[in-house]
């Protein structure tokens, strides 16, 4: 099992490039199920979840080529025949986003069997809203031996009000609605840029969608979709993680190839913490110069455009280095504080009561052996290790490999002392 060894103390200097967003790429790959034609996606990140999705689609009979010719970040998918419309547990268990194939599969083939995703480190993560929505569109759903089976002759348009805002729930049902008969109106939708990115691909495939990126989406179903080519948005969470890496190390870092418009809440919070940012059209320069100037500022996670839950753990690492008391309230997932105990092992002063963590700073961090528990918790521990005194060893970095492309190589390129020990990702 791979580990990272990180020696703290270096300010990060130079330019670091942001990859495509895994959370856009995953639904866009699933959208290829909706057509017999070829879908070409550009700016696909080379991360483990994308390889898992490739396996998932291939196991159903799709032809999927990840990176071809010299275009390492391009993917070609053709779902001409879906001989086995089943998402098997062996694949689903390693990636929560597998539930994204449920809607497109039942819409295209009239039948889908998808293994129920289990709970994960950050919370229970039910998919009841996906099921409820598909039932409202006329699908019959049964559950047996850990699998959901959805069947329909053809989905029908419906009026669906989400009880709770759900990102992949909005994406899953949006895909299903594109091939349904008649109009579907969704209310209380997720407004995340990843939903808008997916809607742009679906529109390029011939879908009739209005309102993506707002709380209400209208879809006029069509009988067939065609192939398309689409470029995936930059990863706003990777970009935010690098901004914090620059700020926490007192560096001068140009975070390039990002979309600052998607980072409003993160930018404004970092500025409230005293971080100096120069925001360009597709880059942000973080110029802290002196990490000693960081001040505490509270965060509370919310759906987009609020402060993202996927940046909470990384922000907590920064809060350990800010002067004063920071409260961090996690409103989206019930158990997303797994990084706290590990940060405490490194010398942080953090207490947790219910959904709120209180961080008292600034505390010097020391190296330790720590354990990654989920994707963003892993990033938080790397950030802490970059300013810790001595050599930190992070175990279970396979969590991080799910969603960050060549993380250690990118950080090394701007002066971090970080190396991987164990089997090299992708060569096992
Ligand atoms: C692949 C992907 O895009 N993952 C992102 C997506 O996850 P994901 O789409 O799984 O997260 P959701 O937006 O669905 O979850 C939000 C909340 O709704 C609850 N819920 C969700 C669905 C449902 O059927 N029933 C239900 O109760 C969840 O338990 C959670 O408390 O959005 C999250 C919230 O921004 C991010 O942290 C994840 O990185
Ligand atoms: C929680 C995340 O991903 P997933 O929904 O795939 O678990 C994430 O990207 O931070």
TrEMBL record:
- GN (gene name): murA
Q: What is its EC number?
A: 2.5.1.7
List the InterPro entries hit by this protein, alphabetically: Enolpyruvate_Tfrase_dom, Enolpyruvate_Tfrase_sf, MurA_subfamily, RNA3'P_cycl/enolpyr_Trfase_a/b, UDP_GlcNAc_COvinyl_MurA
Q: Which residues carry this modification: 2-(S-cysteinyl)pyruvic acid O-phosphothioketal?
A: 120
Which pathway, per its entry?
A: Cell wall biogenesis; peptidoglycan biosynthesis
Q: Where does this protein reside within or beyond the cell?
A: Cytoplasm
The domain of life for this entry's organism is Bacteria
Record: active site: 120 (proton donor)
Q: Which HAMAP family match?
A: MurA
Origin species: Edaphobacter aggregans
Q: What is this protein called?
A: UDP-N-acetylglucosamine 1-carboxyvinyltransferase
- Report the catalytic activity: phosphoenolpyruvate + UDP-N-acetyl-alpha-D-glucosamine = UDP-N-acetyl-3-O-(1-carboxyvinyl)-alpha-D-glucosamine + phosphate
Q: Which Pfam families match?
A: EPSP_synthase
Cite the binding residues for phosphoenolpyruvate: 22-23
Boundaries of every Enolpyruvate transferase domain copy: 6-411
Query: Which GO biological process annotations does it have?
Result: cell division; cell wall organization; peptidoglycan biosynthetic process; regulation of cell shape; UDP-N-acetylgalactosamine biosynthetic process
Identify which top EC class this enzyme belongs to.
transferase
């Amino acid at each position: 099992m791979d580990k990272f060894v990180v020696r703290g103390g270096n300010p990060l200097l130079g330019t670091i490039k942001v990859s495509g967003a895994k959370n856009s790429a995953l639904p866009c790959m699933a959208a290829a199920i909706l057509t017999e034609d070829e879908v070409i996606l550009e700016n696909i990140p080379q991360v483990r979840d994308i390889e898992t999705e490739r396996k998932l689609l291939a196991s159903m009979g799709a032809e999927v080529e990840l990176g071809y010719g010299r275009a390492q970040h391009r993917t070609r998918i053709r779902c001409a025949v879906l001989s086995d419309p089943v998402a098997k547990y062996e694949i689903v268990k390693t990636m929560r986003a597998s539930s994204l194939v449920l809607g497109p599969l039942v819409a295209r083939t009239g039948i889908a069997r998808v293994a129920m995703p289990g709970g994960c480190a950050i919370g229970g993560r039910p998919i009841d809203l996906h099921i409820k929505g598909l039932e409202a569109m006329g699908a019959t759903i049964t559950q047996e031996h850990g699998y959901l089976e959805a069947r329909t002759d053809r989905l029908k348009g419906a009026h669906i009000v989400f009880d709770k805002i759900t990102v992949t729930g909005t994406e899953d049902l949006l895909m299903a609605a594109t091939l349904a008969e008649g109009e579907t109106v969704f209310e209380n939708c997720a407004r995340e840029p990843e939903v808008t990115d997916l809607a742009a691909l679906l529109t390029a495939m011939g879908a009739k969608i209005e309102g993506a990126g707002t709380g209400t989406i209208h879809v006029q179903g069509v009988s067939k979709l065609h192939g398309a080519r689409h470029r995936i948005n930059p990863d706003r969470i990777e970009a935010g993680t690098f901004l914090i890496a620059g700020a926490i190390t007192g560096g001068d870092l140009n975070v390039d190839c990002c979309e600052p418009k998607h980072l409003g809440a993160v930018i404004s919070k970092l500025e409230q913490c005293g971080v100096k940012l120069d925001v360009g059209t597709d880059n942000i320069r973080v110029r802290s110069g002196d990490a000693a100037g960081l001040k505490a500022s509270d965060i509370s996670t919310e759906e987009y455009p609020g402060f993202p839950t996927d940046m909470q753990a990384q922000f907590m690492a920064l809060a350990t280095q800010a002067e004063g008391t920071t409260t961090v309230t996690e409103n989206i997932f019930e158990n997303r504080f797994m990084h706290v105990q590990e940060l405490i092992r490194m010398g942080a002063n953090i207490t947790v009561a219910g959904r709120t963590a209180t961080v008292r700073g600034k505390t010097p961090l020391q190296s330790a052996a720590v354990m990654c528990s989920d994707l963003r918790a892993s990033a938080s521990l790397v950030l802490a290790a970059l300013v810790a005194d001595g050599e930190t060893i992070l175990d279970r970095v396979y969590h991080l490999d799910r969603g960050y492309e060549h993380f250690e190589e990118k950080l090394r390129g701007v002066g971090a002392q970080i190396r991987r020990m164990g089997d090299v990702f992708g060569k096992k």
